[in-house]
Amino acid sequence: MTVIRPYRQIDRRKSRRIMVGSVPVGGDSPITVQSMTNTLTKDAQATIAQIRALEVAGADIVRVSCPDEESSAALKEIVPEVTVPLVADIHFHYKRGIEAAKNGAACLRINPGNIGSKDRVREVVKAARDNNCSMRIGVNAGSLERELLERYGEPCPEAMVESALNHARLLEDEDFLDFKISVKASDVFLAVAAYQQLAEACDYPLHLGVTEAGGLRSGTVKSSVGMGMLLWSGIGDTIRVSLSADPVEEVKVGFDMLKSLGLRHRGVNVVSCPSCARQQFDVIETVKVLEERLAHITTPLTVSVIGCVVNGPGEATMTDIGFTGGGKGVHQVYVGGLPHHRLKDQGIVDHLVSMVEEKAREIEAAKDVADQAAE
Q1: Which pLDDT tens digit goes with each residue over 333-369?
Q2: Which domains does the chain have, with CATH numbers?
Q3: Which long-range contacts (C-beta less than 8 Å, at least 24 apart) are formed by 224-230?
């Protein structure tokens, strides 16, 4: 029987729910993982290929930039060829928002204060409403309004939250409430403080991100520190990890972040030791290859790979499949926390992959039976 440990529970902030295409965001919906294409959107085939790669990685929502008419027109070709809902990134020209909504975007990322008069905002809202399109108000510390910068002196949490709420009122005045908000900054302290204040000031769903976080390693660390603090405190309904790397890596990091906090479970969670002189097999290489070979598994599973018997048996009691190094090249395999059989050095990865795939099939088959019984 699974024991629920109170210290592992995160009480999420209560927010209203909106829809991004068929994907719910906010309320009690799972926290979604997003990424953004870096192809030229007007190159429809290249953009479709990248979106499909993101779909395979597990992305729930994908954003594409629409800086010109060619890009927003390309959505007509792109949207029918992919399954995830697309967010059209609109920065200045209100017509791009109208075009994107008409051409199949599920959401518009806008800054209402940048797209012109209230009449233009009204036109974008009408296009969004007519085409079942939600919105994201995207505030960034690097592009705050001049008036706010002059009044506050520099980008600060108060200025960012004021900007967000001012933009929210523009949409509220049009009786349009299907939007989420982000207040991003490249500075972790600034971003976290802004989100904390915004979470107290409204009940709209929040899109989390530490913008322009950096390369794969440094950006992952910075994003995990900032977004992890917010997620741990219950703040956040959808996330995007901004990395100067392949967008697929953003999705992988996003899911790993949610898995580490028990907020989302997708794929295999490998628990492994850093290795030391006690290891009875090459832990680092084994784990590297194992993770690559298990990347196709979407069923939530936990596998422990520990080099010796100091912590191996204990870790195995908390995982679906466990592997612990033993002496003389003979190792112990655990299933469901209990010793199951022993295995020699040869074919460790092949053996574990086969076991995980079989376990995943069993779990999915059981789910199918349960679903059929519920119908």
Answers
A1: 999 999 999 998 889 999 999 999 999 999 999 988 8
A2: 13-260 (3.20.20.20), 268-374 (3.30.413.10)
A3: 224/253, 224/257, 225/188, 226/188, 226/191, 226/192, 227/257, 228/257, 228/260, 228/261, 229/192, 230/192, 230/195, 230/196
